[in-house]
Amino acid sequence: MDSMIGVIGGSGLYDIDGLEGATWVKVTTPWGKPSDEILVGRLSGTPMAFLPRHGRGHVHAPSDINYRANIDALKRLGCTDIVAVSAVGSLREDYRPGDFVSVDQYIDRTFARTKSFFGAGCVAHVGFSDPTCPRLSDAVARAVPAGITLHRNATYIAMEGPQFSTRAESNLYRSWGADVIGMTAMPEAKLAREAELCYASLAMVTDYDCWHQGHAAVDVAQVIRTLTANAAQARDTVARLPAILAGDGPGGHTRPSCPHGCDHVLGTALMTAPAKRDPDLLAKLDAVAGRVLKG
Length: 295
Ligand SMILES: CSC[C@H]1O[C@H](OP(=O)(O)O)[C@H](O)[C@@H]1O
Ligand SMILES: Nc1ncnc2[nH]cnc12
Hints:
The protein is an alpha/beta fold.
């Protein structure tokens, strides 16, 4: 299979540099408009697509992002892998502002978002015990430049927002064992799984949320200060990724099927009997589930 890396940029990352032949492309989807046009080009020869999650100029709030359109658009363009860059608050002393975090578990506390491509007329249940792809997460971890502290195997709590947490909530999430907090990884990671895309996180700690007695409670100015200082390292990480992924594969821009099965989850997930499926929904699922619905 030909590989294409999709990068979803979070707060503070609205474009990437160094893409050869870079063009902003408008992608239409059956789920509505993605957050923005998508920057498509090649990095070290590997096809790459970059989508700013909040749109250029940060116009979409976390609850208003069209997560389904974003994931569909990236899949429609040919992405096989998604690296989700995000700003997070730290819920632990040893995760300091400026540190990078590789998330591999999520707690979903969001409640005002559409979380599935499937539903009435085509019901599906995909496995989500391991929401990120270990192969892609390892590659992202190896791409983080030397000198940056990287914490691996972290748990991310996704809150609805847009307000930051109360101190009682922040302490509650700490007691649950969550390591970092943000507002956007859900339902993004769930939808990437449904679309059979490998998904990995590159989170950047920007603040200590509000639980830490020794630090002021989070505010946007603090988040932006840390992000501005870190954006270059996030861009470097993305720039190093193609060579690392190519070195893991058979060479060229092809890659074998995901050894963890991310690209085959729909094989066992569809519940609705073929005769009972809704043709309108099936038509919308052409990019996301075409592999299993065709023929
Ligand atoms: C600007 S602070 C809150 C904002 O930042 C994070 O965005 P992203 O995950 O896209 O990097 C957080 O989730 C909130 O949306
Ligand atoms: N403390 C925090 N809470 C939620 N989202 C965040 N993004 C960055 N810092 C955050």
